[in-house]
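Input set for joint prediction.
Command: fold jointly, output tokens.
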Amino acid sequence: MATFIDRRSGKHKSTVNRRRFIRRYKEQLKEAVSNSIAKRSIIDTTSGEKVKIPEKDIREPIFGHGKGGRRESVFSGNKEFVQGDKISRPQSGQQGTGSQASNKGEGLDDFVFEITREEFLELFFEDLELPDLVKKELSQLKSYKRVHAGFVRHGNPSNINIVRSLRNAHGRRIAMAGPIKKKIKAAKQELQQANEESPTDAAKILALEEKLKRLSKRLGTLPFIDEIDLRYNLHLKEPELTTQAVMFCLMDVSGSMDEVKKDLAKRFFLLLYLFLNRNYEKIEVVFIRHHTTAKEVDEQEFFYSRETGGTVVSSALEMMRNIMHERYLATEWNIYAAQASDGDNWNADSPYCREILLKDIMPHLQYFAYIEILPRHHQSLWQAYLDITKTNKSFAMQHINNQTEIYPIFRELFKRHKV
Amino acid sequence: MKKRRQPISQGSEWNFELVKKYNEEISRIASNYGLDTYPNQIEVISAQQMMDAYASVGMPIGYHHWSFGKQYVDVEKKYKRGHMGLAYEIVINSNPCISYLMEENTIAMQALVISHACFGHNSFFKNNYLFQTWTNADAIIDYLVFSKKYIARCEERYGIDEVEKILDACHALMNYGVDRYKHPPTLSIQEEEFRQQQRSEYLQTQVNELWRTIPKPSEENKEKTEVRIPEEPQENILYFIEKNAPLLETWQREIIRIVRKISQYFYPQKQTKIMNEGWACFWHYRIMNDLYDEGLVTDEFMIEFIQSHTSVIAQVPFDHPGYPGLNPYALGFGMWQDIRRICENPTEEDKFWFPEIVNRDWYKTIDFAMRNFKDESFIAQYLSPKMIRDLKLFSLLDDDKKSELEISAIHDEQGFQYIRQALSNQHNLSIIEPNIQVYSVDVRGNRSLTLRHIQYNHQPLNINTQEVLKHLYRLWGFDVALESVDADGNIVETSIFPTKD
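tokens >
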């Protein structure tokens, strides 16, 4: 009479409602998300994020009684009260109004909400995309991977599959030897019989012995391994989309870049990293800092160690070029670069920077973003780079004056191009 | 002594075979007592699905809304932190009666849930007069399917935002979307869809009639003096809006109707929490003990059950840091047990207080009580001095005209009647929820809508009032006002939206 149903495999019904919730509080969530960015390390994006929404924003109001008036409530567990006892009113009113109050949402606590990494990135990079050009190349970029595709009868000797081949040979030997062995057995029996019954009939015995010898010889000629036994491994090349990217962070650490500027640069790099992270499975980051000479460093050193000196931007670009050449071939990697500088460069160096970029770097790059931080006035580097933008769509540059501009500028650089 | 049989199972693991066996035995015991139930549909779900069910406030199929998502996040958070054990039962008032078993439960818990939900709650749903009057167990699933489809269709046509606005507004007034005196029609899904189409055309013509701007023939006008809308104050605010709001479109009216119907469906549950939970606890306690007496369950099974049962019906004292209020399970279970005790072993005191039930057949007595009462009247009728003493109940009077709180009654001879009444009031929906009705519409003027709040014991409305009015305004389309009226009929407070500055 009762029906039993196993629903455990059923779908997760609240997914839609959860999305609705995120959709509705997108503004608040977005704000919380951008606040949290500042606190993160640049590569620490594997986790989701706890975001808070003020409770009052998500309250669902209903009519209810407020404090005041005359009310009576029944409680359990009386210990020492007798009728008529007077109690001073508790300040918070929590006891006085206790069980009658129905407005659950009155606490001032924030509503803490944990979003997944996907939701986090989704919210953060809504409306942004990789520039069109890059996207097109992304889908064309292929590398090949050898995959095992079974066994074949013909092939290169180096691909012989020994186990398979020997197994085939073994089987063939058993199959071919079977009938001969049977005949030998029969012949032996016949010989024995002849020996017992008519040991005098030498001709017959001789004929039988002859036959036995012939059969044994045939057995001996069965090849241990034959050409038809051989099996070769087959490998095929399968195209696969590259899902790895490398991001070069270039930063000027000459004397003119102070902590404030570096912090701005860091935020920008962080954004770019997060953004790429959403599109690629694997990302490597190369940090190159430079003053008059360039050096590849780790994140910690990149942002926090202090050095001073003059500025030769081309040193960093040269280093980047070399690293690209050695470790990140454009056929296998999607290469992005972000450069931050205060625009101070040794004047004679700027044309050379342009040349390296145009000739050696830009052809292999998906995107190059240059930000100039707190420029008093644009100098030769800006002018040189401006030339590049004329011919190169995947080169972008902006300048940033203060922290609040970073995100808008980032959006500006990567915004979705509406056709 | 009954003959003891072999235990159905050993150990705590469960499988479908075993659950079915337990169900058969439980069913046998229940029908021996005479419990009348809908057929059961028992569904096994995961913990995550249980949280789903929680979040959609017990509707097995629900339309989509962000508030359910919020609810889910909340439930999930509490569950993960360990603040909340998931209740081992969710049961739906439908025919067949759907109950959920969680896969993480042990076999003892599954048996407990089956007796609690599939026989306790189930029989309550089927027989209590409030449920019989206000809900239609045969049609609810169909109706939920219809409403989900309808709202999804509206989202496609008018956009999620538009639908969300209406739903938000309706949810704010959901408690005031309930008929208290009429019987709802019973409809199947096909009828419902057919009627919805007809209704949409009809509704629009009705609204036009009310707001007709072309003057009527003068003869009619002479006889009629001022028309009053509504003729009588209307307590079902959502119903009034659905029928009379001038600017709403048909689909918006239909959504109001859906929310109103669902609110009506839950209306009896709000008023029978103590009875219903107590009833279910009473029966699972009986059935489990009977199983044990027959030798069908092991000692370890029984200990697990008792431990769980005890924690469910525990009542912490008011000065406990986590005092959540009176535990409806404790009060309900205690009262049903107590009624049986009064029938079977009455004391002198009981004979004085409950002359009509002492020495009566206990099953008939509780069956009668289950069918014909709601929390408020159930407490007023059956709360015994012994229960009041056992729970050490006392009542506290909080009057804002006085500087101190006063203990108005305790569990002594003089206090029993008082506490009984106070506790009954505390479960009276028309006292818990502010009494707010549609009072008038300025038909000839600016079309403003006025609600009236009749104060109970001078209690003012809470800070959400303005927010709710904003939602009401969204539905009504013209100015809305809410007047609070004291016992003498004087208006003591008025809120309006939009505010005049």
